[in-house]
Design goal:
alpha/beta; 218 residues; 8 helices
Length: 218
């Protein structure tokens, strides 16, 4: 469907990084052609989470897509409370706010919040993802092709996700997922992982906020 895909990264957004580091890496990523910035949340002090997210939003501006990833650190009450407090920041999504297998909780959250909910990276089969889809537990589904059994299963899941009207943002393995995401009818996202660069002799190209699908064997 396309020869490039929207791209984002989390390169500097980890919880152990200082806020100055997070802002510096966000600036660097955007200069390198990354289109969106994701940062981690889920600190014991939720006020500090909010402070960091608001600071990054102010730093990158209102027009740059910003995502947060809780990595399953919140319970249902905390996720709802934090989601409401983050609503005014126009986040592209809140990722894994709850336990990966809590489809009911994610569904309740997706209904309660305007901010899209993203999840799915930890699930290990198409059947487990189908439970998310059936429960309307997310707005953006995040399958991992190696984890769910390869490309064939990923294509099966893409069909189910498209039928349900979900957006797609595959997890990890950008060298595989770039090609698969480009086959999705709806405009997807692919996460860029620059810390895997030492493993490869060639680099995927990012330009103007998008990752370019290679036109060569590889």
């Amino acid at each position: 469907h396309r020869d490039s895909v929207r791209t984002y990264n989390t390169s500097g957004g980890f919880l152990h990084a200082s806020l100055d580091e997070v802002r510096e890496r966000a600036t660097q990523s955007l200069a390198e052609g990354i289109g969106g910035i994701k940062i981690k949340v889920g600190l014991p002090d939720t006020a500090e989470d909010l402070r960091r997210v608001r600071a990054v939003r102010e730093h990158i501006g209102a027009s740059v897509p910003l995502m947060v990833d809780a990595n399953q650190q919140w319970d249902r009450a905390t996720a709802l409370r934090m989601g409401r407090r983050l609503e005014d920041l126009d986040l592209t999504w809140i990722e894994e706010p709850l336990d990966a297998y809590d489809a009911e909780g994610h569904a309740d959250l997706a209904r309660a919040l305007d901010t899209p909910i993203a999840t799915g990276e930890m699930l290990a089969s198409v059947a487990e993802h189908r439970q998310l889809i059936t429960a309307r537990a997310c707005d953006i589904i995040q399958p991992d092709a190696p984890r769910i059994g390869g490309i064939t299963n990923f294509l099966r899941l893409m069909t189910l996700a498209d039928e349900a009207g979900l957006d797609l943002a595959p997890h990890f393995a950008m060298e595989i997922h770039l090609h698969l995401a480009a086959c999705y009818p709806r405009e997807p996202w692919v996460e860029h992982f620059d810390w895997l660069d030492p493993l490869f002799e060639e680099r995927l190209e990012t330009r103007d906020g998008r990752m370019i699908v290679p036109d060569r064997p590889g």
